[in-house]
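[job 4417] fold queue: 2 targets
>>> target A
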Amino acid sequence: MTEQELGMLGEHLAQRYLKQNGYHIRAANYRYLKYELDVIAEKDNKLVVVEVKTRQTAEIGEPWRAVTRKKQRQIIVAADHYVQSRQLDIEVQFDIISIVHNSFRTDLEHIPDAFTT
C-alpha cells in the first residue's frame, strides 16, 4: 500500500467513525492556498475540523504526534478561511484522529479539542 493509499484509507476510516458517532460531514479535503483540511464536520452546534494522521506503525511515535505547532497554525488559517467565506457564526473545535493500520490491526484514536486557537 502506498503512502497516498494509506492516507486515503485513513480519511475514509475517520469519516466512517465520525458518522457512526453522530457527526455530520460538511466537507473533506478542503483546500485553501497550499493548506488542506482533511475533514470538516459538525456536531452539537460546533464545527469540528479533524486532522487525520495514518501510519502503518507506531514505532517512531503515535501518528498524532506529527501534528506540529506549525501544522496546527496552517489548519487554523484554512479553518478561518472556511468559516469566514461561509459567514458562519459557530464555535470551532480542532480534533485529531490518529490511526495505525497494517495487516495485523487497525487502531483508531480520536483526540477531541486536540489544540486550541
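>>> target B
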Amino acid sequence: MKTFSTRILRFAQISLLGLFTAQAAIAANPAPEFAKADANKDGAVSLQEFATAGGKEDAFHASDANGDGMLSPDEFAKAAGGKDRAKPGAMQ
C-alpha cells in the first residue's frame, strides 16, 4: 500500500511541475499579434503602437490595468479581444 501512495504522490508532483513549466512557456512566448504590435520590441505596447496596429484609444486606456501607459501581453489580449473596443478586422 505504501508503494501505491508513493506513486500517486510522485505522479502529482510531476503533474504540477509540468503545469508550471507549461505556464512559464506560454508567458515567455507572447501572442503573435502582441509581438507584431510591439514595434520597438521592448516587451510592452504603447498607445502609439496600439493605434498603429488598429486599436482604439479607449480600448487601450480601459485595458491598461496598472495605469503605466503601456500594455503588457495580458493587457493587450484584453484590449484586442474586446469586439466592441477594436476596429473591425483589427488585431484579429
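[job 4417] complete. Note on B: The chain has two domains: 1-29, 31-87.
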